[in-house]
Amino acid sequence: MRALPFSPNSDEAGAQAERRQEILEAAAQLFAERGYKATSIRQIADAAGMMAGSLYYHIESKESLFVEIHNRALDAAASRIFSAIAPHTAPWARLEAACTELLDIQLSLTSITLPMMNSIVSAPPDVRDALVKKRDEFESIFRNIIDDLPLPATIDRDIYRILLLRALNTANDWYRSGRMSHDQIAHQIFTIFKHQAESEADMIASPRPRSRSAAPMRRSRPARGTDAPVSSEI
């Protein structure tokens, strides 16, 4: 009779899942604080309260661990944004809801989404390719929303999206708590981008008439025998 493959009972499986979650949380904090290169397997093991060799019972490699944490962070952010835009049908309202949620994620003291995204540049090329693919998938949320906006043809939607996301994703570099809330800052960023798009559309719909150019001023001739300069035209 052939032996059945070993299968841990539910208690053991639950304990393993809980232990792995502790490792993920410890590693995520280190990656967010130190970046990919500066974080070692030994540091992750120490933070998780275990021996470095035992860590490989739960993970394949540092690279795979980093990719999993990065992807989980973006999946969690995407889930929050989808929930935020779900009640809205108007394109501009959906964009504002998405901007508000993303900015709150980026400015949250407990968020690891922004540090994980910034660590892409320090990751090895093969790991970076996987991270960029996931990030592009995440940004497709904004791509789809912006595709539905009534933007004039003179505004390139890809450039519009890139600049908007850059404004949201770099807010953590200059934000200081106190003067404005996260929602108020998100509203300011959204309003600026919406106003620019609507102003461009208005200019196309109602072009301003050309004003007659003023007649050029006549040059004054210097008196004979002097070195007075000739006045320039305005």
Task: Summarize the structure in words.
This protein has 234 residues and is mainly α. It folds into two domains: 16-59, Arc Repressor Mutant, subunit A, CATH 1.10.10.60; 66-203, Tetracycline Repressor, domain 2 (Orthogonal Bundle), CATH 1.10.357. Helices cover 63% and strands 0% of the residues. The chain is built from ten helices and no strands. The protein has helices at 10-34, 41-48, 52-55, 62-85, 91-107, 113-118, 125-147, 157-169, 171-174, 182-205. The radius of gyration is 28 Å and the shape is elongated. The chain starts with 9 loop residues before the first helix and ends in a 29-residue tail after the last helix. Residues 222-234 have low confidence and may be disordered.
